[in-house]
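Hi U.,

Before I forget, here's the chain from the pilot set. I'm dumping it here mostly so it's searchable later in email.
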Amino acid sequence: MEGRKKRRQYALVDKSLQYKFLALVFVYGMIIVLFIGVALFVPDILDIVNEDLSLELRARAADRMLSLHFRVWPAVLALVCVLAVHSFRTFLKIAGPLYRFKWAYARLGEGDLGFRVRLREKDYLHAEETEFNRMMDGLQGRLESLSQCLDRSLVSMRALEKSLAGTDHGSEEGRALLEHRSSLEALAGEMSRFRFKEREDKEEGPDPGAA
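Structure:
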């Protein structure tokens, strides 16, 4: 169980996106390192190459620079690595929800309305989760109402066909009747593409850690 949690914690949901983000963190880290190096070492470097200064002053500048090398760079590089790992783990709280929304859009494109997105407690984008589920509730409610209206229309159509059973299909009334029935059947076919019933397991979307 502990191993499973660890896999989820360091999951690669979208490798391209997460690697780009990690590379961006390293680039910014190197820029910070460059500015620190310039601020700390350039003054001593200028003193070392300044031939107008005495050898003693130039030697002291060299000693200071060597001392700074041993003290600063390990700490700076360690800080950059810690920030990179922390940023990578933090970005997973965005990449995970994006992965679930992508899954939800695919399900919605297939006509499935019987699901809702549920993000993990520490994930970001909870406001978007709420709005998406609210949209799904409204869309499902409207389509269910439309489906009920369609069912009533089909019942009324069958009753009308029975009352006009003797109507000649070649007549204007007969052709109109056939046209209405064909339109209702086509609409019923399109409505059948939507699935409204929520599954018993209350599917909440895939676990990004399993990706």
